[in-house]
Amino acid sequence: MFNKEKLLSHLDSKEASNVDKILDKAELALIDHKPTFTDFLNPRQLYIAKPVLAQIRDLKYLEYGGYNKAERKMLALVPDYYIPDMIDPPLTVLNITGQFKFQQVSHRDFLGAILGTGIKRKKVGDLVLYKKGCQAIIAEQIKDFIMLNLEQVHQIGVQVEEISTTELRIEPQRTKEIRDTVASLRLDSVASSGFSTSRSKMSKQIEKGSVKVNWKIVDDTSYMVDTDDILSIRGRGRVEIDEILGKSRRGRIKLRLKRYL
Asked: RNA-binding S4 domain location, by residue (predicted)?
């Protein structure tokens, strides 16, 4: 049907193992002529898996995360004649509310409470925080378990109810366009421009493993980046290399970057 070994040959052992499981589901979708679904995948797993799946004849994939800009998504793997309206992704949204007016709670608090019930991370998608609580996008199969067992978040009692994805309180993504020139497409040079810091300080951040390229830690300051690469630093957001605009009169590379705030 397709050559797994060839499809996985360019990946390291850990990434190959993750994609291998997805390929098993792809094979099943083609054999049974019906959709199969992955668990929620993080951005790095999606980045690795999608180009591999795109090489498989007669197969297509669709992404579902509850909303368009979701970071964690499950993939539907289907024969290529399927249309989206034929697919019902097995995810739902739980609205988790409590008396949080006088107690600040974080993404980590909500995620910790959910995982503390015994649920695995791969069954949980994005968590959307708002003033009254959190809207958790989860695999449908764990809905009843969470509703029965999630009683507290940060020692505050909570109520849990199922809601529609249309009720998600998604705030518009704020971005800032940055136009700059750099001597080269080295990671330290581009990241210092995107995050508005000195190259020497950025080099230290990279060397200590604080910087990711396409959701993978890169500790080599001379690593070469390219268009569409995503650079991220925990606590400082993300920068996307939106476009390389050619060279300036002095031979420097002109860039358009998109900073996610």
From this structure: 185-242
